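Request from the bench team (R.T.):
"We need a structural guess for the complex before ordering more flavin-adenine dinucleotide. Sequence and SMILES attached. Just send the tokens back."

Command: build protein-flavin-adenine dinucleotide structure.
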Amino acid sequence: MVDDSSLLDLVRDKSSDQKSEYLAGGTALMSSLFEYGNGKRFLDIANYVPSGISTKDGGVEIGAMATFSSIISSSLVPDAVRKASSFMASSTLRNMATIGGNVALMRDDSFLVPVLSAMGAKAHVLSENGDEWMSIPEYSKVRGDLLILSFFIPSGNADVAISRRSSHMHSVLNVAFGKDGIAAAVKGTGLVFPGEKAVFSSDMSGSKEYKEYLFKTLSEELLENVKNEN
Ligand SMILES: Cc1cc2nc3c(=O)[nH]c(=O)nc-3n(C[C@H](O)[C@H](O)[C@H](O)COP(=O)(O)OP(=O)(O)OC[C@H]3O[C@@H](n4cnc5c(N)ncnc54)[C@H](O)[C@@H]3O)c2cc1C
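Reply to R.T.: structure attached below.
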């Protein structure tokens, strides 16, 4: 149970003011400042939300304020999650961007949502009613003012792959395979959680047929890699 009054104050503050945003690494918020930052109030969560990485119940717990760089350099974090974190091409972004911010955004080119979903990770979240653990697909449906405190990743084989036209471009497809199945981020159509059917559409990142082909070949490759890990 979370009884830290500073954390609860943050959640209440956010719920009472719809123009407020939790500020973590600031990479997404700051880059969109000119678009929608006008009138926004930022609630700095850096001093309240954990950033540590530790082993727990046969898996690993990662504080929501852990940066991509700290995840990549931690030997406690499963290889697939470290690999997915290294897909963020800029070292400046990797040093600032947090796992909590990445999951909260639920972007259609998310680096971490597919791998966390495929591995059956859970998010520890806090609302005005208290704290609870939920799966990543569950969190995606209820996000709102929830403050993510940490993630628990159970152990298990997994692998991830990304497809993009050049190293610094947004990904067309980001696919992961783990104990819960296949998950993906598909540019233009959104996130695909384990057990869901992938939907593709044509846009400037590629045709529907191109994305279907990538999804099929990358999924087959990942299945083979994970099978060979055993
Ligand atoms: C040039 C550029 C390219 C990018 N490319 C990609 C990309 O290809 N794929 C991708 O996935 N991302 C990309 N990003 C987006 C972003 O940098 C990352 O997703 C990053 O992980 C966001 O984390 P942050 O800590 O900087 O979040 P912030 O910018 O601080 O916050 C982002 C959002 O998350 C919310 N939030 C943050 N922490 C929490 C928390 N603990 N609980 C609840 N809500 C929270 C905030 O309220 C805010 O709405 C890119 C950003 C830039 C600037």
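Two things stood out. Residues 208-229 form the longest helix (22 residues). The domain at 5-154 is CATH 3.30.465.10 (Uridine Diphospho-n-acetylenolpyruvylglucosamine Reductase; domain 3).
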